[in-house]
Design goal:
Number of strands: 22
Helix content: 25-40%
Pathway: Purine metabolism; IMP biosynthesis via de novo pathway; N(1)-(5-phospho-D-ribosyl)glycinamide from 5-phospho-alpha-D-ribose 1-diphosphate: step 1/2
Strand order of the largest sheet: 3-2-4-1-10-9-11
Protein name: Amidophosphoribosyltransferase
Catalytic activity: 5-phospho-beta-D-ribosylamine + L-glutamate + diphosphate = 5-phospho-alpha-D-ribose 1-diphosphate + L-glutamine + H2O
EC number: 2.4.2.14
Largest sheet: 7 strands, antiparallel
Bound molecules: 1-O-pyrophosphono-5-O-phosphono-alpha-D-ribofuranose, glutamine, magnesium ion
Oligomer: single chain
Radius of gyration: 23 Å
GO biological process, one term: purine nucleotide biosynthetic process
Strand content: 15-25%
Length: 513
Amino acid sequence: MCGITALLLADHNLMASPELHEGLGMLQHRGQDAAGIVTCGNKGRLYQIKGSGMVRDVFDQPKLEQLVGSMGVGHVRYPTAGSSSTSEAQPLYVNSPYGITFAHNGNLVNAAELREFLDHEAHRHINTDSDSELLLNIFANNLNKTGKSRINEEDIFTAIKGIFDVCHGGYACVAMIAGFGIIGFRDPHGIRPIGFAKRQSPKGTDYMFASESVVCDGCSFTDFEDLKPGEAVIVNKNLTVTRRELIPQPSFSPCIFEYVYFSRPDSIIDGISVYKCRLAMGEALADQVTKKLGPNMDVDVIIPVPDTSRVAALQTAYKLDITYREGFIKNRYIGRTFIMPGQAMRKKTVRRKFNAMSLEFAGKNVLIVDDSIVRGTTSREIVQMARDAGAKKVYLASCAPAIRYPNVYGIDMPSPHELVAYNKTEDEIAEALGADKVIFQTLEGLVASCQKFSPHIKSWDASVFDGKYISGNVDEKYLKHLEGLRADHNKGVVEDLQSPETLGLYNFNLQLK
Ligand SMILES: O=P(O)(O)OC[C@H]1O[C@H](OP(=O)(O)OP(=O)(O)O)[C@H](O)[C@@H]1O
Ligand SMILES: NC(=O)CC[C@H](N)C(=O)O
Ligand SMILES: [Mg+2]
């Protein structure tokens, strides 16, 4: 999952970079590998700072001051294609036509086909293994077909419709055309989230796009609206907003994992409060716990795995009328582990990140609640820590069902063999994690927890739970190919091969020193 944002200020004498930077800080939980901002000055010149690491590693005050201009785009990255090399940090840029910068959240499932088309037919040079570079070049190629020296909104809508026709997978995108304005669009299934909001200022209305509403809230924008599946919104530098649904009958299937784990609880995505969904997941989980452990269960205390499971775990405890306690203390300076690259780093980090307080575990039967169990990295360590802290019995409950299938739409889970639940029964999973029992949410329970707040959403991308992929182009052959490219044990090999020429065309990382 990546985070994207774009901002256009009504007052052309102000700078967009400070708020883009703040916005990226609020999206940090969506990507920790790289961050970047590109702004556009009044003469149509672009200014870029991007590099590997967290937002705080890439930017400082002097750098932000170099990013002049009242409009810009920003990105935080969690790679799902290519490598974590700095050369694939976003936003990406092509000078022809018109000077386009681009930021993408999601993943394409027909990247190989697009790459071939761009090479053989469009004759566009692709410099990295990033699928986002392909999306950008399809957009550029479509815009180029106008043959015009200056384009208008119609041309942009036609170019985006052209993307929808050929690019399959999950994609929420923002773009900026130099001297023209900013654009947001969302794939025809609306798998990945994006919305936009406005703010009155003395010179007119400012506009902001963001992956999550929390960014717009935090920057005092109001009237946040999600983009519809297959919709594009253009805000030009004269502050005219034009929006169009480019797919007549889109099939809306937003990613349900946004509600389980990815999004911040204080975001409203597609009209649904993530916080409320997590409370509902906690309640539904309580029913499963009762079913599996019986109404007279021997659980003394419920303990969440910080951070994401807290909201749901509290509600599970409330519904079961069992004491809730924060037994694991998390080091607040260590980021999310699931989105870190490589199993070795994830494992090491989990161990350093948590500390179990014996006074909450010693001599007790504990029910540990997490939002999801994916590779089992967290659960394995947590269960052991609970035992080391003196727990008698350790039950483990997950607010999401067992994850048994890869994700292909922007979450880096490319290999079923890395998933702890793959090909295992619940008892086998419990054994693998060292728990006395594991209890999973049912898929019906999860869907109902989100659906109750969103009767307008009839279908969800729940592919990691049920193996049903909404877009075309996902078959056994593709899944094998993806696993070959991106499974943890292969990723290292690919990255080594690319090294050391991963500096990127503009050597932007040299500016960072
Ligand atoms: O089974 P695993 O492969 O370990 O993945 C699942 C765990 O990873 C996530 O936590 P993370 O530390 O990324 O973020 P959080 O602090 O938001 O909970 C998630 O909340 C689970 O705890
Ligand atoms: N997680 C994402 O959204 C990743 C975007 C894009 N596929 C990349 O790897 O950069
Ligand atoms: Mg967690």
